[in-house]
## 1
Amino acid sequence: MSVLTAIVILAVIAALFGLLLGYASIRFHVEGDPVVDRIDALLPQTQCGQCSFAGCRPYAEAIAKGEAAINLCPPGGETTMLALADLLGVEPQPLDEEHAAEPEKTIVHIDEQTCIGCTLCIQACPVDAILGAAKQMHTIIESECTGCNLCIPPCPVDCIHIVPVKIVPDTWRWPLPENKNTAPMA
Amino acid sequence: MTRKKHPLWQFHGGLTLAGKKAMSTATAIAKASLPAEVVIPLHQHIGEIGEVLVSVGDRVLKGQALTLPKAYVSAPVHASTSGTVTAIAEHPIPHPSGLSSLCVSIETDGKDEWIALDPVANFRDLDPGEIRNRVRHAGIVGLGGAAFPTAVKLNPGPVHKIETLILNGSECEPYISCDDMLMRERAIDVIHGAEIIAYALHAEKCLIAVEDNKPEAMAALEQALVASQCDRIEIVEIPSIYPAGGEKQLIKILTGKEVPSDGLPADIGLLVQNVGTAAAVYGAVVRGEPLISRIITVTGPGIEQPQNMEVLIGTPMADIIAQCGGYRPDAEKLIMGGPMMGFSLHSDQLPIIKGCNCLLVKTTADTALTTQTMPCIRCGECTKVCPASLLPQQLYWYASSKNFDVIQDYHLFDCIECGCCAYVCPSQIPLVQYYRFAKTEIWNQEREKQKSDHARIRHEFRAARLEREKQEREEALRKKKEMLARKKQAEAAKSTPTEDPKKAAIAAAMERVKAKKASSDAAPQNTDNLTPAQQKLIEDADKRRQLSGKE
């Protein structure tokens, strides 16, 4: 008898909590995946696809599902990898050797003498940073270019070149002082 | 007049340093001679550069604006003498990076011909807005070194009421004496400037703070104050402790108040201006003169005749040094600013800018002292002297390990880079360099973040646009199909009651094909009068046909 009472009580409690959780999941429903958003916010948004995903958001989704490693983003470099490790609470994973150094920021430049106005690069640009029209000269809006280089392969006349972003006094950074003797002591 | 004793407070830490100012105060402020060429950087202030108003080949007059500020936080630059614009191009500027920036080069014509000025006899005829406008168009920026546009500071907004204006005449860094000399020789300009700024801000009180190692400046100011009969200005003598001239430190000394960590002095009803800025404001408002020259201390053990000079903006540093007798044989390093907060320059072929208060030449003997960096021994001396009450040692660890999140929890951005910590460090660690490194790295990260957020918005917008266009195309296609279907239906409905001519034509054609087929099915022709051999061949072929038909 007492066993039956216990089962009934537990069943009632379980049913109540079930209803509560069911209600909460509807009442406090969150649109989208906040983890994906937070990962996406850390990615450099070059949309370059070097991670083998079709842009930053798909990569963020793959990381959130645990399908992709956190060290696949060359433009983000070590900073992004460390930020991702910090966010997800996982061990930092070293980047490939060729990407271990901080990536040099680049943008592209269209050689306007060679451009034939085919619009193929415009269609490839993920951030609409190329201005032009059919049979009209095209040009890069430098402030919008993310340096993803996706416009280079479609160009039939190879008129798009990679140029490093110019460092001006306002964007110049102090170097870390060089000294071997001052490694932090425990 | 006997001086009222203003109550004073103390800030945390600080250093008592040897002034070394006497070497440059022996002679009066000399006027530098007119250079053959002036190079005027467009970006000499904090904020945006203005729109260039001149082009190559133009003749410009002294005081003519070269740029027009477009952004709110911006300042114009002016031709510092008359001449011809020879270039508007990148030219090296005095900056720790040694990089170039856009400059207007003017070949001087030696006439030093002024543009028509618009003086005002009594500044009280102008309202504060007009004063701000004059200050803005005169290109006045903070002359203490930070070069923040003064007009912006003069407009604290409706939420902040400025009770007290503080004029900073403390000039606490060793060697530098340009403010000292300015106060000695042009005290009346400083007093009038203070009156104008206080009037523009509706400030009730104005304190002029002078360190006690400048008795001559103090006396000159007091004399000028008596002459001007201004009762809301008070001159306060403060102890010579480095860095008493830091904005927040000076506020602490004079009022005992602390500026909030990420706030401004305006948040606690105060505003600090350099005495040189006040004199420039006076020149701009009353005489209508833009900021085209400043007083510079050329000093240090590596210079032959240390002195203060009034120099046109854009004059090459090498010219100034030559006029001070040139370098001594053991000169080693050229520093812009003082020994504590200045930075070394890569060359002396650089123009003088508005924020340049001192050119310091160090000798081999000075620089030899600071070479051997040793490990941190955690002595804590740096913490004792930090005037911002920070933990320099912690900041150092986090900067060297690039832990930029935690370093901000330790208030890196409250560091004023005064150099006290590095000065007392027994291991001679260049601590300030670590903080500068961390600050510029964090700013860079913020820029990258903004850029990536911007790219995300553009990418998402593009994706949405492509999706919308696809839907629109599909919609258009669907509508077209529907229209066709409707047309067909309508036609079908029209043709049912009567005989459809098309259908009839099709039926007739099919009839014709049928008839033709039937006629072609008739018996084979040319089979009469065959030889037996031919007959045999035909029979064989028929047999084969039958066989293949069966299979």
## 2
Amino acid sequence: MFDGLIAFGHSIWSFCDPMSLGLVLLSSLVGVIIGALPGLTATMGVALMTTLTIKMPSNQALLVLVCTYVGAIYGGSRSAILLNIPGTPASAASCLDGYALAKQGLAGRAMGIATSGSVLGTLIGMFFLALFTPILGNLALKFGAYEFFWLALFGVIVAGTLTGNDPLKGWIAGLVGIFTAAIGQEAIYAYDRFSFGSRDLAGGFQLVPALVGAFGFAELLVAVREKAAPVKINPFDSVIPKLKDVTQYWRTILRSGVIGTFIGILPGVGEDVAAWSSYAAAKRVSKEKEKFGKGSIDGLMAAETGDNACVPGAVIPVLTLAVPGSAPAAVLMAAMLIHGVRPGPMIMIEAPTFVYDVVAMMMFATIGILIYGLTLTQLLIKVLMVPKPIILPIIFVLCVVGSYAISQRLFDVWVMMGFGVLGYALRRLKYPVAPLVLGMVLGDLMEKGFRRGLVLSDGELGPFFTRPISAVLWVTIVLVILLKFPIVGRALGRLRGRAAPRAG
Amino acid sequence: MATEVYESSPRHDLVGGCVWTAFGCLIVALSWQMDRMTQQGATLHTAPGLWPGIVGACLAALGGILVLRSWRRAQRIGWDAAEADDTDYAPMSGFALAAGMFFVYALLLVGRGLPFWLGSALFVSAFVFLFQHARRKAAGQVVRGIVVALACGVLTSLAVTYVFEQLFYVRLP
């Protein structure tokens, strides 16, 4: 307990130099602006900043990425409130009540609620990050090849189930991601798979160019395809958060913080699901249900607390299991690997203080968003007024530079373009993109787990199903899949129908 | 009776399902043709094609389920029934022009001998000018439009070059 606090204190102190503090302010600002600009997502922001920080010392680079991530998730609320356009998918739930409040001339109060919800949400998530990471890290030490196979599969299945409206399409997107991870040299015999004689393809797809494509270029194509909505800013009052809003809705804040963190821990689900789940939970227990969607402070507080609490939550499985809890966390994980940090079960043994470094980074990011939450309104409005034809080509230049910079290969620029087209096509055909990313990130872990498991068991499939943690994971996967079959849903509905009269 | 509609029409899903099934089958076929590495002591469960083969088979199976589902849905609601799409789309010509410019910049202007700053300045200026031209022309501000476009292009390329190369020591294409 005290060791953890001392390590946390050391971590905070290590970032208390002018350079690090300057980076906190700069990267939080970049994050907030990226988040506020409709069409630019947190994933894209973190991916672009990964390339920019590639030559920096690892702790400072990761500090920049965490601040960008937290800032972007917060920044999305600004355009949701002011324009009724979610800056990031995570802020879609905030549009409902945030914009309704803005139309009533209360945009300033709504922004204050978003600031207090986001800050408190991140702090709650941060608390659980510090609390759960060592515990989960110890549990993860019991994981072997079989468990990692099921865990990775669980991540893709859950992401496919929860991130879109059609689980079947989510699972297909996940499988496509897993397949792309299988392209290139395989691990046991260094055999080139699906490379067709190309040396570049034999190296496989790098994660950052693929993510910049799937989230950056694809979003640009979507933005070009859709007409820009006229920007009309409602007049607003003071953006300083009111203490009364926090004290009156403390239950909502706590509940949404816990829900957001828990959803963050689930592999690949991410901030948008956290925001919607927190919103739905708040509506279910609220005494003012009729106000939801018409300017409910409770609803806005829930959505903003939930999505920001999800950020530290999504980092917990990254650190302990090397399984990202969201798409931006997947990029963060890739950045950790680039900077020589090896996330996974050994982290509490190899680099226990790094966990507290990440907690401290979250704390500095929270300070960053608090500062900009109180001060940045006018500048952000000016940024939001910049016409789309000016923003789009600049972002595309950054996408090209971002995908090239990691390995200095033009091939990565083509990969970015290819994944951009794929991401755009999937969006148009109503396939979720998050499972594709999860599949790409976890495909390698899944294959290694599967093949190592088979080697260890000499081809026997039994251990995949009989080891205790494996059994829990595969049973959960089967249940998650079965519950999405209409026939099972109908059977459960009939069972509930029978149980209800008896209970009555 | 409630009308049953989904995000995408059964026809779109049928085409998608067929594509995924075909793609999955292709993966299985290519995986089957891979070297089994038996000369290096590989067995069935360590053969390089096993994993992608399984992934391809699963993809083909899910594609097949999508085909079946779209067929069943089409029997109930028709082939083209889908949720109303209330997105306000820009003209297809504008989309094609923008996509074309993205591709020309990424595949031809970058890394082909032209200095990065020049290629980027040309791309950004051309993009800003073309996509603001109609509005500028209507407002009688064509010259101003050209100046703004050039300023955007030059400033972007200088800023990106300075920040990436000079400040963060990242090589540019």
